[in-house]
Amino acid sequence: MIDLHTHSNFSDGTDSPTTLLSKAMAHGLTTIALTDHDTVAGWDEAIAHLRPGLELVLGSEISCQTHDGISVHMLGLLFDRSNPELMEMMSATRENRYTRMSKIIEKLNAANYEITLEDVLAELSDGATLGRPHLADALVTKGYMKSRDQVFAEILHNDSPFYVSHYSPTPEEAIARVKAAGGVAVMAHPMSSLRSRVVSPESFAAYVDAGLDGIEVFHRDHTLENRERLLSIAAELDLVVTGSSDYHGNGKLNLLGENTTDPEEFAKLEARADARRVVTRA
Q1: Average pLDDT, stretch 52-63?
Q2: What pLDDT score does 194 carry?
Q3: Model pTM greater than 0.85?
Q4: Where does the chain show beta strands of DSSP type E?
Q5: All domains of the chain, ordered by start, with CATH?
Q6: Is-contact 92 85, C-beta < 8 A?
Q7: pLDDT above 70 covers what percent of the chain?
């Protein structure tokens, strides 16, 4: 089984890369991608603790935004992390997260939520990418809510008065940087209306022109109708079809391997990278 979208505690997941890999093997996965938000900080630990029988695909879920403000997540996989332009882009996105978090906290304070940036940072693992899930965890710790899911449902969703937009590259920019680094670009959960507004089906042609390689079709946030529409788009535009769990550990229902990628599709995807970068142990 191939799962091409997971997170560790180097972004907003709760498992260390070591624990994530152990769970992947226990769930019968044969290939797993580590795709923390806007960072490659967990790669070295994952590589060091990889065991025979499991293949590791290294990547990152890159936060993007269209010109009209629609949030898009782009999975960059199998790229060369020594590429300076790609690393600089992700670094700029991470740094902006602190400014954004401070603005959200100001709004919460004005609404009588007693929370500080220090409270939020206390929820991060060393080297982790800051995100709203850490704010949710801090609110749970402070006793305002019972779970991450409740926080997002009630006060941290994208249409709430506490939402603050942030710097992100456009999807086309992210795709170009990933491709220049020798990797492949797959749009994550593109029709997940549970998250926010979604891009129109007509926009995919422009992303293909920029170098898009695939679409994450099989995802728990996609309805059957969404999946059928995306399969049609993939066939029309010659895009690789992927499936994945978007696993985060505790606090989210997503289970490792609940959606997977067909081996033939993964072979096509890997062939689009400029070098073989899947990590294995003999």
Answers
A1: 97
A2: 60
A3: no
A4: 2-6, 31-34, 55-65, 71-77, 184-188, 214-218, 240-243
A5: 2-91+169-271 (3.20.20.140), 97-154 (1.10.150.650)
A6: no
A7: 98
Average pLDDT over residues 10-32: 96
**Tokens (6 digits) for 142:** 């402070």
Reply yes or no on whether the pLDDT at 128 is more than 90. Answer: no
- Averaged pLDDT, 235-256: 94
Dihedral sign of CA atoms 212, 218, 220, 221 in order = positive
* Type of residue at 236: E
Which single residue is written with the structure tokens 């997971």?
6
In angstroms, the CA 243 to CA 259 distance is: 5
One-character DSSP codes across 39-95: --TTHHHHHHT--TT-EEEEEEEEEEE-TTS-EEEEEEES--TT-HHHHHHHHHHHH
Sequence letter at residue 60: S
Lookup result for tokens 């991450």: 148
Structure tokens at 182: 């020798």
Q: Is the predicted pLDDT of residue 196 greater than 70, yes or no? A: no
Which residue type is seen at 105?
I
Report pLDDT for 274: 98
| SS3 state at 275 | coil
